[in-house]
Amino acid sequence: MPAMSTLQPLETLDFPGADTAVVRFRGQSLDRMHEAMDQAFGLLGEAIRAGRFRPAGPAFARYEGDVRQGLCDGVDLEVGFPVDTPLKAGTADGEPAGEGEPAVVGSSLPACRLAITRHHGPYDQLPQAWGAFVAEIEARGLVPADLFWEAYDTEPGPDVDPADLITGLAVPLRD
């Protein structure tokens, strides 16, 4: 029997925003999401090892789109880390990437009113966790913006039990 997802109670907070180092993917297909994530974390790891930036928090994936629709094919995606010091324009070392080549660039998570929770359980249960989270947001009369992100509070690895994974879920709220 698969492990059950558990969500912590929904909270809202005033999020101050955060500078980030990310790899962007425009129009990402869902069936190749794992490849994009692997590529992004490879590039981010190289940039960290080269001293181009230092993470100031857990890795995250930011999605642009209507969270009520869930992840849709062709989603715009940023995968990265919050940073204390903003990156220069272009790639993390200031050099522009070649046309169409993924590269580490500076970005940000917006300052906003934010709904948050944590999902305890395997990544394959995230769609159900997101659905329950969005239902709770709407049940409280709150309106989600067209942006949402996941923070990977537990680093995955071959020795990590998927039931022990903790993923933060965050949705900016409209006024």
Q: What do these coordinates show?
A:
The chain is of the alpha+beta class. It contains 2 helices and 9 strands, in the order βββαββββαββ. Strands 1, 2, 3, 4, 5, 6, 7, 8 and 9 form a 9-stranded antiparallel β-sheet that branches. It is globular and about 45 Å long.
Number of helices: 2
Overall 3D geometry? Answer: globular
Rg over CA atoms, rounded to whole Å, is: 16 Å
- Structural class given helices, strands, pairing? alpha+beta
H/E element sequence: EEEHEEEEHEE
Outline of this structure?
This protein has 175 residues and is α+β, with helices and mostly antiparallel strands. The protein is 18% helix and 34% strand. It has helices at residues 33-49, 126-139; strands at 6-7, 11-15, 18-28, 60-64, 75-82, 104-109, 112-120, 147-152, 166-172.
What's the structural blueprint in terms of helices and strands?
Layout: E1 6-7, E2 11-15, E3 18-28, H1 33-49, E4 60-64, E5 75-82, E6 104-109, E7 112-120, H2 126-139, E8 147-152, E9 166-172
Antiparallel strand pairs: 1-7, 2-7, 3-5, 3-6, 4-5, 4-8, 7-9, 8-9
Keyphrases for this structure?
globular; 175 residues; 34% strand; alpha+beta; nine-stranded antiparallel sheet; 9 strands
